[in-house]
Amino acid sequence: MKKSTLLAPPESTTLLAQMVQRLPLSDTHFRRISQLIYQRAGIVLADHKREMVYNRLVRRLRTLNIDDFGRYLALLENDANSAEWQAFINALTTNLTAFFREAHHFPILADHARQRGGSYSVWSTAASTGEEPYSIAMTLAETLGAGPGKFSVHASDIDTQVLEKAASGVYRQEELRTLSQAQMQRFFLRGTGPHAGMVRVRPELANAVTFARLNLLAHEWTQPGPFDAIFCRNVMIYFDKETQEKILRRFVPLLKPGGLLFAGHSENFSQISKEFYLRGQTVYGLTKERS
């Protein structure tokens, strides 16, 4: 009778175990990741974000078949123009958004647009997957009408993946739960057959919104302007005070006289910059125009 022997695991099983195994993220590598994302995107990563950083970047390492964070960082730093830099930024950018998020802003926007003459223009500086700029566009269409030249919304973001979804204008129907039935019918097309449960922004609304990649830390901004309103909501919380001040200074010449700057619920721009004063709940005007 033959003795039983332990068989070596098949090669595929060994590879799977290596992929599932947790890769070490050293203090040195975490600090370097934090430095690089700050330099490239202005994002400040506190120590408590370490697990988030690991979970997001380890997917890139596995996609690239890299088993060490040091090797991944070397890949980035060996080529300042590598396409992997965009994937790195995309992975570490937080994109929490919803249609008509911070709903109190939209009646203020509507009143402001109603009082202004000419074509009304808005810049959404952190468009994410498109919910904010499309909410702005719906508000302006309801207020000013949807004809050509009535209004325009310029939407930008540093993350190319979310911009791709935003430009497609396709959403799950449950993502539109904050919209009225009238808004659903007027501004969206329902999917049928294999696309049941999905909706698409109607072309007449989508045509009023343009999307472009933009890094708020870039030396030059390519967006058109000036604007009647700028939405910069829940963006500054990821930057340090020096970066916040710099960005707010650059907004000043991009606002038309009497223009509005909208902030997120946890942001206070008048404490960061003397250029802006609080006009309403997280809505700001230019201090130089204050009577």
Automatic annotation (TrEMBL):
Q: What is this protein called?
A: Chemotaxis protein methyltransferase
List the CDD domains hit by this protein, alphabetically: AdoMet_MTases
Q: Which GO terms describe its biological process?
A: methylation
- Its EC number is 2.1.1.80
Binding site residues for S-adenosyl-L-methionine:
95, 97, 101, 132, 157, 215-216, 233-234
Q: Write out the entry's keywords from A to Z.
A: Methyltransferase, S-adenosyl-L-methionine, Transferase
What function does this protein fulfil? Methylation of the membrane-bound methyl-accepting chemotaxis proteins (MCP) to form gamma-glutamyl methyl ester residues in MCP.
User: Which reaction is the catalytic activity of this chain?
Assistant: L-glutamyl-[protein] + S-adenosyl-L-methionine = [protein]-L-glutamate 5-O-methyl ester + S-adenosyl-L-homocysteine
| Gene3D superfamilies hit by this protein | Chemotaxis receptor methyltransferase CheR, N-terminal domain, Vaccinia Virus protein VP39
What sequence ranges are listed for the domain CheR-type methyltransferase? Answer: 18-289
GO molecular function terms noted in the UniProt entry:
protein-glutamate O-methyltransferase activity
Which InterPro entries does the entry link to? Bact_Chemotaxis_MeTrfase, Chemotaxis_MeTrfase_CheR, CheR_C, CheR_MeTrfase, CheR_N, CheR_N_sf, SAM-dependent_MTases_sf
Could you list the residue ranges that cross the membrane? none
Coiled-coil features, chain-numbered ranges? none
Could you name the domain of life of the organism this protein comes from? Bacteria
